[in-house]
Amino acid sequence: MRQLRYLMLVVLFCVLFFHPIAHGENEPSLPPSPSQPYTTFNDFNTRIRDGRISKTAAHTELSGRLAAIRADYYSRGGQEYASTEWVFPVAGYNAGTIEKRGGHGFVASGYDFFSGNRHGGHPAYDIFIRDRNQDCRDDRTGEAVKVLSMTGGVVVALENEWRQGSKLRGGRYIWIYDPAHNLLAYYAHNEKLFVEPGMIVKPGDLLAVVGRSGLNAAKHRSPTHLHFSVLRLTDGQPVPVPAYSELQRAKCLPKPPSPLNHE
Ligand SMILES: [Zn+2]
Predict the structure, then answer these.
(1) Does residue 27 sit within a domain?
(2) CA distances (Å), 49 to each of 109, 127, 151, in order?
(3) How far is 250 from 83, CA to CA, in rounded Å?
(4) For the segment 181-230, what is each residue's pLDDT rounded down to a tens digit?
(5) Distance 225 CA to ligand 1 centre (A)
(6) Domain limits at 172?
(7) For the ranges 5-19, 114-128, 190-204, which has the lowest average pLDDT?
(8) What pTM does this model have?
(9) CA of 13 to the centre of ligand 1 (A)
(10) pLDDT classification of 254: cutoffs 50, 70, 90
């Protein structure tokens, strides 16, 4: 009985002195902040971009980093979205606004993800908006044009700091990793970003608005567009995917006005 009373006193002591509230701390005892693998991935991606890591070292590191991100994605309830649920990445537009000629502007040859900002090729589709006066506003509506996530996934890297005169080709860009398809999706030349590394997205979620950021995209000769790439991880190498048919099949949100529907 005496032992029990002693035990109760010890328990009471522990509750009073070791409970976070007793110390005036409000930190919940949750697992470590999920932002951690993402801030380090963003830094890793920036080193690739700026040529501050060798291609071999980057190639070796990439798979492990993405595996950690994949595990975190599922542990936080990240979902798998089939490609039939994908959404066209520019709101109010469809694939009819992508260049019609040849490969629709897609050139995979010469591209190496690990070459960063100095990469060759154009492993992407440029999705043009109606912006004759280049003010990044849709000429039909006077409004900014939303960039939507095509796939599900998690924001793994971005750049917010682009300024006029910067040599950075992607400008204000976003990279999203889709663990379900082992894809990296790249959205470049945005005017303004609305996401942070570590944010989980589903198809159709707002990422940014279309802009003219980036070395060449800022030049007068460049019509306002979203530069959109899909890369599939193959033996640790992000390989460009010719995703034109996926862009054609993707759901358009909101439904474009009728002239754009005749594709
Ligand atoms: Zn482009």
Answers:
(1) no
(2) 19, 23, 23
(3) 8
(4) 999 999 999 999 999 999 999 999 999 999 999 999 999 999 999 999 99
(5) 8
(6) 83-256
(7) 5-19
(8) 0.84
(9) 64
(10) confident
Q: 61: CA distance to ligand 1 center in Å?
A: 27
Would you say residue 61 lies in a domain? no
Confidence of residue 244 (pLDDT cuts 50, 70, 90): very high
Instruction: Give domain status of residue 56, yes or no.
Output: no
Give the CATH number for residue 214: 2.70.70.10
The answer to whether residue 179 sits within a structural domain is yes
Q: Alpha-carbon distance 157 to 185, whole Å?
A: 11
Which residue's structure tokens are 């492990």? Answer: 64
E-state strands within 68-171: 125-128, 146-148, 153-158
Rounded to the nearest whole angstrom, what is the distance from the C-alpha of residue 242 to the centroid of ligand 1? 14
Domain tally, the chain: 1
